[in-house]
Specification:
The complex is a heterodimer of chains A (272) and B (217). Chain A is α/β, with parallel strands linked by helices and 272 residues long. Helix content of chain A is 43%, strand content 23%. In chain B, helix 1 packs antiparallel against helix 2, helix 3 packs across helix 4 and helix 4 crosses helix 6. The chains are: A alpha/beta (272), B mainly alpha (217). Chains A and B meet through helix 2, strand 6 and helix 3 of A and helix 5 and helix 6 of B. The structure holds adenosine-5'-triphosphate and magnesium ion. Chain A: Keywords: ATP-binding, Cell membrane, Membrane, Nucleotide-binding, Transport.
C-alpha cells in the first residue's frame, strides 16, 4: 500500500530523515517509535506531503512520485497522494467554527462536492461508528478531549482514505480517556484499515502493531514484529531507548503522586 | 427650540440620503479592498506584496482630507472628473481598505497553522481553505477592530462636506449660516452622529455575540 525508497528530508541543510525505506502492506498497522526529535512526525507528514521530501521515491496505492533534490511537486500530484491518506493530529485541529458533523462533512462537501444531505448522512454514520452520534451538533469546544479526537478520526475517515496516519493521537489526552481513542483505533484495525501510527504508548504499540519501526536521528535503526523489537532488540540504540522507557515506567508516579511531585513529573516528560 | 426641530428633519434627511449610503458603500468596498490587500501582502508574489505595501503606505501616511481634495479637485486637471459623491466614496473606500488591510492580515495570520494542515490533509485547495476554514475564523477575530473603523467612518463622512457633498455636516453649515444658531445647530448635528454611532455599537455587540457561538464562554 505504501512504499518509500531512499527518502531524504532536509530542513534548510540539516538532514532530518536519512535514506528511509519503508513498506506498509494493505491492512497492516505500522507503529513508529523513537525518541523526541528523531523525525517521526516529519516522516508521517512526508507520507501525505504536508512536508515535501527532499529526495526519494514515494508510492501510495497506485500513485507514485520520484523526487530529486530541488524538484517541486505539482499540486495535482500532491492532491492525488493526499486523497489516499487521512490524518489524525495530536492536537486534533478540528475546525472550531463547525459542529462535529460539519467537521466530518467538510471534506465530502468541499473536496468531493457531495450534496449536503448525503454528506451529512455519511458523516452521521461515521460519528456513530466512533460512538458520538449524540454529539453531532456540538461544537468542538463543547466536547471532551477524547471526544474531540474521535471526531478527528471520523473526519479523517470521511474521504475513505486507503491509509490513516496518526501522529501521537493520545499524547494530549488525560490518561483516563486515552482508552476511548485507542479502542476506536483497535476497531479500525479489525476492519482491515491500513494505519501508520506514531505513539509513545508502548503497551498499545505492542498490542496493535503488526510491524514496529524504531527511528533515531532520522534513521530507521531497527524494525520488525513487536515481539522482535520489544523483547529481542538487536541494536544498541533500541535497547537504550527501551531501557529508558522501562526505567520511566517504574518511576512514573501514580496520578496522586504526580500531583504531589509535579516538578519530577516534568522531568519524566522530557525523556519522552 | 423651534429652530432645533425645524432643522432636525433636513439634517436627518441629509444623513439618511447621503451620510448613511456613503458610509455603507464605502465600508463594503473598503472591506473588499482590505481583504484583497491582506491576501496580496500574504502572497508569495513579490510585485503584489510591494503594490499592497505601497498602497497602505500612501493612504495611511497622508491626511484623508488631502486625499479627498486630490480626488475631487486635483484629478480634473488631469482630465478625470468625478462627481462629488463618487469622489467621496472612492476616497473613503481607499481609506477603509488601507487601514483594515493590516487588521485582516493579522487576523488571518492569527489562525493556527494546524487549521491549514488539517484542511490540507483533507485535500482542500488553498482557496478552499481560505474561504471555508480561515476567513470565517479570521472574521470573528477582526469584528472588534472592524467595527471601530466603521464607527470612525460614520464620523469621517462629515469630511465629504469639504468636497461639496450635501451630507449632514454640509446641511448643518448651511442652516447655521442662515439662522446664526451655530452652537445649537452644531450640537444638534453632533447628537445625530452620536445617535448613529450608538446604534452601530449596539449592532457590533450583536455581531460579536453571533461569532461567539462557537467559543468557550
Ligand atoms: N518546520 C521545521 N523546520 C525546521 N526544523 C524542523 C521543522 N520541523 C521539525 N524540525 C526538526 O526536525 C527534527 C525532527 O522533528 P519531528 O517533529 O519529526 O520529531 P518527532 O520524532 O516527531 O519528535 P516528537 O516525539 O517530539 O514529536 C527536530 O529536530 C525538529 O527540530
Ligand atoms: Mg512528533
Amino acid at each position: 500500500m505504501i512504499r518509500l525508497k531512499d527518502i531524504n528530508k532536509n530542513f534548510g541543510n540539516v538532514p532530518i530523515l536519512k535514506h528511509i525505506d519503508l513498506r506498509v502492506n494493505k491492512g497492516e498497522t505500522v507503529v513508529i517509535i523513537g525518541p523526541s526529535g528523531s523525525g517521526k512526525s516529519t516522516l508521517l507528514r512526508c507520507l501525505n506531503l504536508l512536508e515535501q521530501p527532499t529526495s526519494g521515491y514515494l508510492r501510495i496505492a497506485d500513485d507514485s512520485l520520484q523526487l530529486k533534490e530541488g524538484d517541486s511537486i505539482k499540486q495535482a500530484d500532491v492532491m492525488k497522494i493526499r486523497l489516499h491518506t487521512g490524518m489524525v493530529f495530536q492536537a486534533h485541529h478540528l475546525f472550531p467554527h463547525m459542529t462535529a458533523v460539519q467537521n466530518v462533512m467538510e471534506g465530502l462537501v468541499t473536496v468531493r462536492r457531495q450534496a449536503k444531505v448525503e454528506a451529512r448522512a455519511a458523516a452521521l454514520r461515521l460519528l456513530k461508528k466512533v460512538g458520538l452520534a449524540d454529539k453531532a451538533d456540538s461544537y468542538p469546544f463543547q466536547l471532551s478531549g477524547g471526544q474531540q479526537q474521535r471526531v478527528g478520526i471520523a473526519r479523517a475517515l470521511a474521504l475513505e482514505p486507503n491509509v490513516l496516519l496518526f501522529d501521537e493521537p493520545t499524547s494530549a489526552l488525560d490518561p483516563e480517556i486515552v482508552g476511548e481513542v485507542l479502542n476506536v483505533m483497535g476497531d479500525l484495525k479489525q476492519e482491515g484499515m491500513t494505519m501508520v501510527i506514531v505513539t509513545h504508548e508502548m503497551q498499545f504499540a505492542r498490542l496493535i502493531a503488526d510491524h514496529i519501526i524504531f527511528l533515531d536521528q532520522g534513521v530507521v535503526v531497527e524494525e520488525g514484529s513487536p515481539d522482535q523489537v520489544f523483547d529481542a532488540p538487536t541494536q544498541k540504540r533500541t535497547k537504550q531507548f527501551l531501557q529508558r522507557l522501562d526505567w520511566m515506567r517504574e518511576r512514573i508516579p501514580t496520578g496522586h503522586e504526580a500531583e504531589l511531585f509535579a516538578p519530577q513529573n516534568e522531568e519524566v516528560g522530557i525523556v519522552h | 427650540m423651534e429652530i432645533f426641530l425645524d432643522s432636525l428633519w433636513p439634517l436627518l434627511k441629509a444623513g439618511v440620503l447621503f451620510a448613511v449610503p456613503l458610509t455603507l458603500i464605502s465600508f463594503a468596498v473598503g472591506l473588499v479592498l482590505a481583504l484583497l490587500t491582506a491576501l496580496a501582502r500574504l502572497s508569495s508574489i513579490k510585485p503584489l506584496v510591494w503594490l499592497a505595501r505601497f498602497y497602505v503606505w500612501i493612504i495611511r501616511g497622508t491626511p484623508l482630507l488631502v486625499q479627498l481634495f486630490i480626488i475631487f479637485y486635483g484629478l480634473p486637471s488631469l482630465g478625470i472628473t468625478i462627481g462629488a459623491f463618487s469622489a467621496a466614496i472612492i476616497g473613503f473606500s481607499l481609506s477603509v481598505g488601507a487601514y483594515n488591510a493590516e487588521v485582516m492580515r493579522a487576523a488571518i495570520q492569527s489562525i493556527p497553522k494546524g487549521q491549514w494542515e488539517a484542511a490540507e490533509s483533507l485535500g482542500m485547495t488553498r482557496s478552499q481553505i481560505l474561504r471555508r476554514i480561515i476567513l470565517p475564523q479570521a472574521a470573528r477575530v477582526s469584528v472588534p477592530p472592524l467595527s471601530n473603523s466603521f464607527i470612525s467612518l460614520v464620523k469621517d463622512t462629515s469630511l465629504a462636506a469639504t468636497i461639496t457633498v450635501t451630507e449632514m455636516f454640509q446641511r448643518a453649515q448651511q442652516i447655521a449660516a442662515v439662522t446664526y444658531e451655530h452652537m445649537l445647530i452644531y450640537c444638534e448635528v453632533a447628537l445625530i452622529y452620536l445617535f448613529f454611532s450608538t446604534i452601530l455599537s449596539a449592532l457590533q455587540a450583536r455581531v460579536e455575540k453571533y461569532f461567539e457561538r462557537y467559543t468557550v464562554r
